[in-house]
Design a protein that fits this description.
Layout (H helix, E strand, L loop, with lengths): L4 E6 L8 H10 L7 E5 L2 H9 L4 E5 L1
Antiparallel strand pairs: 1-2, 1-3
C-alpha cells in the first residue's frame, strides 16, 4: 500500500453521537462541520474513518 494522504471532511454534527464516535473525530483532528483535514492513509486512521463513515466525506490525495 502506498503511503498516501486522505482528505477527510466532517459533514454531520458531533452532537448526540456516541462517545467513541466523538473520540474518533478528535483523533482525526476534526472539530467543525465542513472542516477538512489531511491525514495519512494508515490502518489506524482507516479504522477511525470506517467507524464514523456516516458523518465523513473521504477523498484520496
Amino acid at each position: 500500500m502506498a503511503s498516501t494522504n486522505l482528505n477527510v471532511t466532517m459533514t454531520k454534527s458531533k452532537f448526540g453521537r456516541l462517545p467513541r464516535h466523538r473520540a474518533c473525530l478528535i483523533g482525526l483532528g476534526l472539530r467543525k462541520i465542513n472542516q477538512t483535514v489531511q491525514v495519512a492513509d494508515t490502518p489506524e486512521n482507516r479504522g477511525m474513518i470506517n467507524k464514523i463513515s456516516y458523518m465523513l466525506k473521504v477523498e484520496a490525495v
